[in-house]
DNA sequence: GATAGATTTTGAATCATTCTAAACACCAAC
DNA sequence: GTTGGTGTTTAGAATGATTCAAAATCTATC
């Protein structure tokens, strides 16, 4: 079920890790491929369970380590909703998250540049932004699946 | 240090609680007044410590209870930053939060209606929003205090 | 002033995450 | 091919914010 990384994806992983003097390992490959395979913003436990199917000896601590590493090198984003378990997202394009209260599912919402600049424009002088996080809460009305890959 | 509630504030509290058939208690009054007295988005522990100054017997569980009650009746908002302790905010106007990475402080950023509608406009069909949360991360450049009351 | 319902209190339980220390893997130098 | 160094993985313990459970306290009403 968890196919290997494509040429391109492996390169991206290798490249991202290289910056911190870190290496591609079998565990990191699997964890990354789990994130790419089903972009439904899984929790650590979900990643762990999916990854274990291809690598039974994998430990939970390693999944935490890998994900932290990926976040550190900018390959992956953390997604938090209140104090629920952290979820992980490999979508590097600027996007917001929509959390469906009835299903608990998290959807990516593309974020056009003009929205970002509108947002930056409301900051008073002296506030320098590194990043902006936007999350919608609500529910989705039928409207076909809203695919999470 | 923690002055009592004004007429108006007490009424607001009483009114908000009444909807759920709940009553004003000395503990709830103190906890609410702590939030109003210093709008720096305190954590539960910070609220607890401040409140204890006026009511030494107050328990931590009660602070959790009061805050949960307030959130439930819409008097107060929770503010989360990643998985840090939840903070509490009595500002009911639509606003975003700016988290200063160097000081850890959280500032309110007024949110004009046109920004909210711009944001709503990027949602694909079928996504019905109940609420939108926006948080900026960055640092503040001198520019006088950025008062947190 | 007894009874019921809400609230508060204490202390224990939960549970995601982090930490620690021991095993491993890899590679380059000897 | 052994050794030393460095980064990685692993299992299990520790942490810490939050939640829970149950007893004690209050308050309003009969
Ligand atoms: Mn709804
Ligand atoms: Mn910065
Ligand atoms: Zn995402
Ligand atoms: Zn606020």
How would the global form of chain A be characterised? globular
Number of domains of chain A: 2
Greatest interface: A-B, 41 and 41 residues
Q: On the 0-100 scale, what is the average pLDDT of chain A? A: 93
Main sheet characteristics of chain A: 3 strands, mixed
CATH topology of the largest domain in chain A: Arc Repressor Mutant, subunit A
- Portion of residues in beta strands of chain A equals 15-25%
Quickly describe the structure.
The first copy, chain A, is an alpha+beta fold. Chain A is built from 5 helices and 5 strands.
Walk me through what this model shows:
The structure is a homodimer of 149-residue chains. With 149 residues, the first copy, chain A, is α+β, with helices and mostly antiparallel strands. Chain A folds into two domains: 7-72, Arc Repressor Mutant, subunit A, CATH 1.10.10; 95-138. Chain A is built from five helices and five strands, in the order H-H-H-H-E-E-E-E-H-E. A three-stranded mixed sheet of chain A has the order 4-3-5, with no helix packed on it. In chain A, helix 2 (26-37) crosses helix 3, helix 2 crosses helix 4 (60-72) and helix 3 (44-54) crosses helix 4 (60-72). The longest helix of chain A has 13 residues, at 60-72. Chain A is globular, with a radius of gyration of 17 Å. The first copy, chain A, starts with 6 loop residues before the first helix and ends in a 9-residue tail after the last strand. The model of chain A has no long low-confidence stretch (mean pLDDT 93). The complex binds manganese (II) ion (2 copies) and zinc ion (2 copies). Residues 41, 79, 89, 91, 95, 97, 108 of chain B line the site of one zinc ion (ZN). The structure holds a DNA duplex (30 and 30 nucleotides).
